[in-house]
Amino acid sequence: MIPVLDLKREYQELKDEIDAAVSRVLASGGFVGGAEVEALEGELAAYLEVPHIITLGSGTDALFIALRAMGLGPGDEVITSPFTFIATIEAIQHVGATPVLVDIDPQTFNLDPQGLGAALTPRTRAILPVHLYGQAAPMQAIVEFAQAHRLSVLEDAAQAIGARYCSQGAGPAWQRVGTIGMAGAFSLYPTKNLGAYGDAGFIATRSPAIAEESRLIASHGQAARYHHVRPAGYTSRLDALQAAILRVKLPHLEAWNARRRAIAHAYSEGLKGVVQTPYEAPYALHIFHQYTIRHPQRDRLAEHLKARGIGSSVHYPLPAHLQPAYRDLAPEGSLPEAERAAREVLSLPMHPFLEEAQLEAVLEAVRSFG
Ligand SMILES: *Cc1c(COP(=O)(O)O)cnc(C)c1O
């Protein structure tokens, strides 16, 4: 079986360093926050070229806490994509705000900025674009719309650590995604391109005010120990063990993302004219968290691959508004591109340790689908 992801293989590659890092933390007696976490925050800040990193318990917490730190609350509307992992929607609801869904661009699977105008109401306060599969959303159009209507922008960069975005025209060249809006929310869930060995996430921001507010919220609203300056505080912090493990992995991230890009390139060459391969927008440096093809007979193709020992997965089989819990967000048929994508997408095995022979086997199996 060729799995979609191989985390055992990754651990084998780094075993000595990771085991040493874990032993170091166990011997230190400090398990939440502390020196390892501070060091990781500094290293992530350098990697992402952003001044403030706030590590947290998960990517979902990063979304929720960033929205709260940005002042979003009941009565506010937040525009986002229906074609995402459900945490994007949950975070908006957790601050008491209302998600407003805008359909996706079928080429990139990201929020289509042409839909923003129709979604705008007097209650709109923010846009939450998702950099799906590791490819930047069209940030220039989103940020310009946000500026014109005085909206905040929070990026869901959970799948896109290390991806870059290049604004067309006058803006800065090739910024890291998650550092373009007011804040970016990242996940360090084990399956993400940089994964902890458990739940973890962080907020990146250029705003000292959002950074400070996020730290307050994530630690019981306390400014100093046992001095609580914000009501309804929360607890979401990174374990020292996870920080030490992530510090071993972070120096490999650029090479791992480059390897993913090389695999994606080989897949796309080998599948030209066979299936619809991913589109890399001219403004995006895609890091291929997922390599996702489209096929009108997606389920049959997945069965065909399985019978040949090739793993695959569907991200996502339902858009948010067709989930049983979220039927009230939008009627069926109103977001046709997201609905069609959910029927057609299939993600192929993609991780930095995929071998040439495995890659060839995947290509062979997809090509033999009649
Ligand atoms: C993984 C993911 C999240 C949530 O991150 P967790 O660390 O699992 O809480 C949010 N949004 C998207 C798009 C994701 O892929």
From TrEMBL:
Domain of life: Bacteria
CDD domains hit by this protein: AHBA_syn
Cited Pfam families: DegT_DnrJ_EryC1 (PF01041)
EC assignment: 2.6.1.106
Active-site residues, as the UniProt record annotates them: K192 (proton acceptor)
Record InterPro entries: DegT/StrS_aminotransferase (IPR000653), PyrdxlP-dep_Trfase (IPR015424), PyrdxlP-dep_Trfase_major (IPR015421), PyrdxlP-dep_Trfase_small (IPR015422)
N6-(pyridoxal phosphate)lysine carried by residues: K192
Broadest EC class assigned to this enzyme: transferase
SUPFAM superfamilies: PLP-dependent transferases
Molecular function terms from GO: pyridoxal phosphate binding; transaminase activity
Keyword vocabulary terms for this entry: Aminotransferase, Pyridoxal phosphate, Transferase
GO process annotations (BP): polysaccharide biosynthetic process
Keyword Zinc-finger: no
Family: Belongs to the DegT/DnrJ/EryC1 family.
Name of the protein in its database record: dTDP-3-amino-3,4,6-trideoxy-alpha-D-glucose transaminase
Species in which this protein is naturally found: Meiothermus granaticius NBRC 107808
